[in-house]
Amino acid sequence: MSADVQAKIDSLVKSNKIMVFMKGSKLMPQCGFSNTAVQILNSLGAPFETFDVLSDYEVRQGIKDYSNWPTIPQIYINGEFVGGSDILIELYQKGELQEMVAVALAS
Q1: What is the pLDDT along the chain (107 residues), one digit of tens a residue?
Q2: CA distance 93 to 31
Q3: Phi and psi of 22, rounded to 5°?
Q4: What is the C-alpha radius of gyration for the chain, rounded to an integer number of angstroms?
Q5: Phi-psi region of 22 (alpha: psi -120 to 50; beta: other; left: phi over 0)
Q6: pLDDT score for 55
Q7: What integer pLDDT is reported at residue 84 of this predicted model?
Q8: Architecture of domain 3-106
Q9: Which of 56, 95, 101, 65 is nearest to 82 (CA)?
Q10: What is the pTM of this model?
């Protein structure tokens, strides 16, 4: 990954409390997994930002290296990688995601 791509990803992750790298946007998800992530975050009423990896091939590949995670979507809360939609579902069902979001928004 180039230094420019790394800097772009760093900036997005660090400047947003909740950042989702996904296919499509929160208004128009382009895959089921991305839609699941958006629906979960929407259900919490949490403000979050998204980046459409379909619009930037270098970021689409770079985010996988950045997190060492092979799939999209990727969710970051308070600058830390949380996981994909499967992990989000699991955390949500345990009530842990709600706590993570509350802490992130309070900080």
Answers
A1: 899 999 999 999 999 999 999 999 999 999 999 999 999 999 999 899 999 999 999 999 999 999 999 999 999 999 999 999 999 999 999 999 999 999 998 98
A2: 21
A3: -145, 175
A4: 13
A5: beta
A6: 96
A7: 94
A8: 3-Layer(aba) Sandwich (3.40)
A9: 101
A10: 0.94
Question: What single letter denotes the amino acid at residue 22?
Answer: M
Encoded tokens for 73: 């979507």
**Are 63 and 2 contacting, i.e. CB atoms less than 8 angstroms apart?**
no
Unique residue bearing structure tokens 């579902």: 89
C-alpha distance from residue 13 to each of 9, 55, 76 (Å): 6, 17, 7
Q: What residue has token string 């259900």?
A: 43
H or E stretch covering 74: strand 74-77
Q: Which of 36, 19, 4, 5 is nearest to 77 (CA)?
A: 19
Q: Is 31 annotated as a binding residue?
A: yes
Quote the tokens at residue 105.
């928004």
Segments making up each domain of the chain, as ranges: 3-106
Burial of 56 (0-12, 13-18, 19+ CB in 10 A): middle
